[in-house]
């Protein structure tokens, strides 16, 4: 195992420890607080920056709640843990894959476009879901919940796995540990730039369309308040400004 992979594992352990610490505090204070506990992924820049406690999605959610007169506290965790806590009603809202049938979905917060990325030297075509059934592929956690057909495509693929920390995906690809990675387009470019890899080394396969992402709520009235704030945020034109700010800052 090389030094870069070891470093990434250490970072993951730190993030996991922080996740448990913050989550424990939120659960302890759940019945006696004046803020909304929102759980969100911890490794998805430019949408979420764990250390800086900001990002496109965080800013949009925070501003929408502020229009509704609601304070927010963001909790950071893996996609799988977010879904578990939402279904257990340990948090108020979650920005993740859909929860169970009794959760309440907001209006679209933002749109993501997931892509499959290979090295530029990869010679096979990836044009349909079935093409993912025979390649070594590292996807973001819970990827199969977002795309119809993906679960079937990878069901018998021993080379498919999902990562908790998306920071590892580009290094895994460049080290030859996998043939392809599945992640959101801007998240890929952020980690590519941070890893100092030129775009010419990669081939991006646009297998998926842009799709909305939502905030899922335990309480329907709180969801409605958030939607009202989100509507005002759109009317003021703030969302494109927030997106543009981060894309410009990180040269995306």
Keywords:
five-stranded mixed sheet, 12 strands, 252 residues, 8 helices, D-Maltodextrin-Binding Protein, domain 2
In words, what does this structure look like?
Residues 38-248 form the Solute-binding protein family 3/N-terminal domain. Helix content is 38%, strand content 19%. Helix 2 crosses helix 7 (220-235). The two termini are 31 Å apart. It has 252 residues and is an alpha/beta fold. Residues 4-31 have low confidence and may be disordered. The chain has eight helices and twelve strands. It has a five-stranded mixed beta sheet with strand order 2-1-3-12-4, sandwiched between helices. Strands 8-7-9-6-10 form a five-stranded mixed beta sheet.
Net shape: globular
Q: How is the main sheet built?
A: 5 strands, mixed
The helix content, as a percent range, equals 25-40%
Highest-level CATH class of the largest domain: Alpha Beta
The computed structural class is alpha/beta
Element-by-element helix/strand order:
HEHEHEEEEEHEHEHEEEHH
Tell me the number of structural domains.
Answer: 2
Q: What amount of the residues lies in strands?
A: 15-25%
Number of helix segments? Answer: 8
Terminal-residue CA separation? 31 Å
Uncertain runs = 4-31
Average pLDDT rating: 87
InterPro entries: Solute-binding_3/MltF_N
Keywords: Signal
Protein name: ABC-type amino acid transport substrate-binding protein
Organism: Pseudobacteriovorax antillogorgiicola
